[in-house]
Specification:
578 residues; alpha+beta; Immunoglobulin-like; Rhopdopsin 7-helix transmembrane proteins; five-stranded antiparallel beta sheet; 49% helix
């Protein structure tokens, strides 16, 4: 209900009094978006004025104009409901998306009605089998073309020839068939009010092997000729029909794609989103599923291990790694929503507020992980290089304070996702994609912020990690009393942490730098974002090398506890048997 009226009545005894009727002002997103071609007719190479009318309340504040031509899409934004498109061709189709403060709605794709002279398609040809000739001429034109034939220089067909024609959309198919006994030339002429096109058709001589007639059983030559002609006609009709329909489908796919769908608006939006990403939605969905299946059990095991370890006197690295586990689990919690988006062809069909929450959690978890890994590297370096200072920092309050600062930094930075999507002057209510397809105003703010992300949340933590772990390795190898196992553990921890940065964090953040200088998000950003999802799978490796909770030597190790519990059960069983 987009329009409503309300009134009230008061009853006192037998008297009823009615109030005045008031109109209810109901706000709703564009529900009926219609595109009208104002300039009629329009020739190829000229311009056309399109008018986008939308039924909504309040009125649209922004219009996104989409132009599609031979599979290539172009988009521009405007605050005006009318838009002029230049250099129109016969393959141009236009659609518009109207945005108001409630949502967005898209019109159907409208092919521009462009008259043009006939063009004989290259699939036109003749086929000669035995003494029977069959020719097909395909011509595309607006208005529809008529087909004429010239056989051996005569524009009148021989009396033994038959002809017919069919058409679909802008393509006309003319066909002639008849017997020939000598060399022959065939011309096809296509005419309409704008001009004509003439082409000499190539004659392909085919073998009579199409015949499946048993000559031993057929003695009548006339019967054999009739069978030959019938089988040749059937084979050629199938062949020419395949060519004709393939050409029609190709033309329709480029200009009238939405006319072949029941739900035209959603189908056109899906095609627009599919053509933009470099990575197919099936690949994205596969990566998300693999990450979820590996990362969830690994991080749940890590959560249990640290919960056991944290009951005793926890080390600062244990508290930091526990927060890293929580960050990864938050990431895995919203990953099913990203799976739903990928399974829907990268179209966001869920409520808009879930898109904001998903984007906020998705990116916050990535940057929280990088900052926590940096903090772990600093504590490990202090513990090796400055053991006295490290003992003073073993109070849990210090680690908790550092974790609070890290969570605040990452969430404060990633709150840009709410600002970009919900600020009145920046919001783009195009619900077909989640946190993608930004407007120029959004990119003017988002690209500099992303560059700051790269410097503060990626580059600085990466340099600190490299310095700390290189120093740790050098110090450990300079001390001969340290066992090779501890040295190997230190190398594994350093390589694992740097792998997370170099494989999962750095490539995605480099796309921020490239996007800042290009003025738009690079297409390969999708690849790097998929690498970032593997962060939750690599982090458990860091847990193994960084905490005694995963080793049999620690007093609170889950594996040690399990082994001790198994030994106690074995001793009890042995004692009872004795």
């Amino acid at each position: 209900m987009h329009k409503g009226y309300i009134n009230c009545s008061a009853v006192f005894g037998a008297i009823t009094t009615y109030s005045q009727q008031h109109t209810v002002n109901i706000f709703y997103k564009p529900v009926t978006v219609t595109l009208v071609q104002e300039t009629k007719p329009v020739s190829e190479g000229n311009e056309v004025i399109m008018d986008c009318a939308a039924e909504c309340n309040p009125s649209p504040h922004t219009y996104s104009w989409l132009r599609r031509e031979m599979g290539q899409n172009d988009e521009r934004n405007s605050t005006q409901r009318k838009m002029t498109f230049s250099n129109i061709t016969r393959h141009t189709s236009v659609s518009c998306i109207a945005h108001n403060n409630i949502g967005a709605g898209q019109s159907e794709w409208l092919p521009i009605n462009v008259p043009y002279p006939p063009e004989i398609l290259p699939e036109s040809s003749c086929s000669l089998t035995g003494e029977v000739l069959m020719c097909v001429c395909l011509a595309e034109a607006v208005p529809k073309a008529s087909i004429e034939w010239i056989v051996n220089g005569n524009d009148t067909l021989p009396s033994s020839f038959t002809s017919n024609s069919t058409h679909m959309e802008n393509i006309v198919s003319g066909e002639i068939r008849g017997p020939v006994q000598s060399q022959i030339t065939v011309f096809c002429i296509a005419n309409n009010s704008l001009g004509n096109d003439t082409k000499q058709l190539a004659i392909n001589v085919t073998k009579s092997s199409l015949l499946l007639v048993d000559h031993k059983k057929t003695s009548n030559c006339q019967t054999q000729a009739e069978l030959r002609e019938m089988q040749m006609r059937t084979a050629l009709q199938v062949f020419m029909t395949m060519i004709f329909w393939r050409k029609c489908v190709d033309r329709l796919n480029s200009t009238r794609l939405t006319q072949c769908s029941k739900d035209k608006t959603k189908f056109s939006l899906r095609m627009r989103n599919i053509t933009e990403p470099v990575v197919r939605s099936e690949v994205i969905l596969s990566v998300y599923i693999i990450t979820f299946l590996i990362g969830l059990p690994a991080n749940l095991l890590a959560l249990y291990a640290f919960s056991v370890k944290i009951r005793s006197k926890p080390l600062p690295t244990d508290i930091l790694l526990l927060n890293l586990v929580i960050s990864d689990l938050l990431f895995l919690t919203i990953l099913p929503l990203k799976m739903h988006e990928a399974a829907s062809g990268l179209i966001w069909n869920l409520p808009n507020f879930l898109c904001s929450i998903t984007s906020f959690t998705f990116f916050s978890a990535i940057y929280t992980s990088s900052l926590l890994l940096m903090a772990v590297s600093v504590f490990r370096y202090i513990g090796i290089a400055f053991p006295i200072t490290y003992r003073q920092l073993q109070k849990p309050s210090y680690a908790i304070l550092i974790c609070a600062i890290i969570w605040f930094m990452s969430t404060a930075h990633c709150s840009i996702t709410f600002f970009i999507q919900h600020h009145p002057s920046l919001s783009n209510n195009n619900t077909t994609a989640c946190y993608e397809n930004f407007t120029k105003k959004q990119l003017d703010i988002l690209l500099p912020v992303r560059l700051e992300f790269f410097i503060v949340l990626c580059l600085i933590p990466l340099l600190i990690c490299i310095y700390c772990y290189l120093q740790c390795i050098l110090i450990l190898y300079s001390r001969p009393r340290i066992s090779p196992m501890k040295k190997q553990k230190a190398i594994g921890m350093a390589l694992g942490t740097l792998a997370v940065f170099l494989i999962c964090v750095l490539p995605y953040n480099l796309s921020h730098v490239v996007g800042f200088f290009q003025g738009s998000s690079p297409k390969w950003r999708y690849y790097t974002l998929l690498l970032s999802t593997f962060n939750t799978c690599i982090d458990p490796i860091i847990f193994y090398f960084s905490s005694s909770a995963f080793h049999c030597t620690g007093e609170k190790s889950i594996f040690r506890n399990c082994r001790l519990h198994a030994s106690q059960l074995h001793n009890q069983a042995t004692g009872s048997s004795q």
